[in-house]
Specification:
single chain, 681 residues, alpha+beta, eight-stranded antiparallel sheet, eight-stranded antiparallel beta barrel, 17 helices, 27% helix, 32% strand, globular, ATP-binding, EC 6.4.1.3, manganese, Biotin_carboxylase_complex, magnesium
Length: 681
Amino acid sequence: MFDKILIANRGEIACRVIKTARKMGIKTVAIYSDADKQALHVQMADEAVHIGPPPANQSYIVIDKVMEAIRKTGAQAVHPGYGFLSENSKFAEALAAEGVAFVGPPVNAIESMGDKITSKKIAQEAGVSTVPGYMGLIADADEAVKISNEIGYPVMIKASAGGGGKGMRIAWNDEEAREGFQSSKNEAANSFGDDRIFIEKFVTQPRHIEIQVLCDTHGNGIYLGERECSIQRRNQKVVEEAPSPFLDEETRKAMGEQAVALAKAVGYASAGTVEFIVDGDKNFYFLEMNTRLQVEHPVTELITGVDLVEQMIRVAAGGELPLRQEDVKLTGWAIENRLYAEDPYRGFLPSIGRLTRYRPPQETAAGPMLENGKWQGDAPAGETAVRNDTGVYEGGEISMYYDPMIAKLCTWAPTREEAIDAMRIALDSFEVEGIGHNLPFLSAVMDHPKFISGDMTTAFIAEEYPEGFEGVELHSDDLRKIAAACAAMHRVAEIRRTRVSGRMDNHERKVGTDWVVSLQGQSFDVVIDADREGATVNFQGGDSYRVTSDWTPGDQLATVKVNGETLVLKTGKATQGFRIRSRGADLAVKVRTPRQAELAALMPEKVAPDTSKLLLCPMPGLIVKVDVEVGQEVQEGQNLCTVEAMKMENILRAERKGVVSKINAAPGDSLAVDDVIMEFE
């Protein structure tokens, strides 16, 4: 076994590998750029080596710099994580030349399966059903349009060396094919150093289901069930679960056996993932093979008990798999939600800044575990588990240079329904402040009827949130529970305020029992009957809610029981009430006396400023291109400029017809959120 491993990556996956290496008694080496000097993976590793400036193409994906770090530290093996150099055959060759083990598949497997064009040809030759498409190299945008017409719209334009949703576009017409080809080419060059593009038919109403395979160098290969990855945004997965609520055992077996056969055909050894598109009739089509560890691997680990990183390391050291296919069993259900540094209220655009508060829910263990090739029993009935894979900490910064994902929150339970319930509570318990984040959106998905039913496709987000995410409107029953909780909490805070020292003599303030609670456009008249154990909140009309909690004023997280049901509320102080965030809703809750409520109803509402004649920068980013000039008339939907942030190009378009009167930014300018890019007459 190895004594020292270098992790050629950053963020949460570097931290994840370090945890397993530490468990195995292996020392670890981290590499870092200027932007990651104080990063969590640097703090966790036994050694750390600086490798260059913040941009990945000047640090993390420069093979010579990584090799220099290996020589400097004497690392015997390298785990590449995912992204960066994980599917780079030249990197694997460089390691082999130095006599350093690559914790991943052989070079020929990377070359044949890591390249999407080659992998499709191999799959076709092996008799695997594939999606129609053009596998040759595409010279320019004109040829891309021609090929797209031959295949038939809609088409998917993809980077051959791509991954993680980078360098991918869906085109529904010639104009989008032309634009998508150039944007995909640019993103591919920046992210992977390879701008080759191919085009395939975009299958509508598909489900994205992938099979986890694990092979060793002794000819053994197994599959560890599937992962449902259909909830995606901009071709990037947001929610994953294992197993899939759609597959039956027969289809699972057929997909698994086909995935293993494909892996063996290329001499695969290590963990890998074979991705499929599955239609409504359970017909499945080979999509691609990722010759690396997947981002969503934790859900597979939670239902199988297999530490995939450990097995990758053991295989790289020449070890044999500790189990055969008949030993694999899927226990319970696991769900993963990806926490992204992006603002769902601004079209999910990237957000950067300092994490002024970062408090994940407490991690708990449950489920089966595989140790020394033996199962450690079944999971106890009724138990749940929470796991959070992360690479950040409170006070750390989210940089504009890297992927916006900052954590992967996972829950496990014996059933899917219980796993969803556990995830709801975990999301409500996750405290993040200082940046825009997608926690409210994730909570909304967990409560969405389509997700709960398991009847979703890769078009879920586009279909259910066509105008973007605008928050959650809670049902009246949920509002009443939150109103009851806030009324009881407000009473506790008022009592605290009456006990402040230094008050005037002979002046005693009494806390009343009658209150008006206003939230989400509704008002409730309540009367509070309190005792030592809690409070009974009586609503006008007869409903009563028993509220108990150990919340004290100043706590930013309140766990409250309302009629026996547990609510987890993120709580912020506001004038005459609270800012409450729960189940994806962001609520301004006012708790007033009847007289205060009467007077508040007479106050005028503040009107937001008019920004209709301004193009504001929706995210911190770099201006790549300006497509218009002063005095030019623009039409609705016309390209105005392109902004690059977190490795993604975003085209800003005109919302309405107008004339450009002023341009305040030029290519190369770095802008902050809401900086004015251009003005209109």
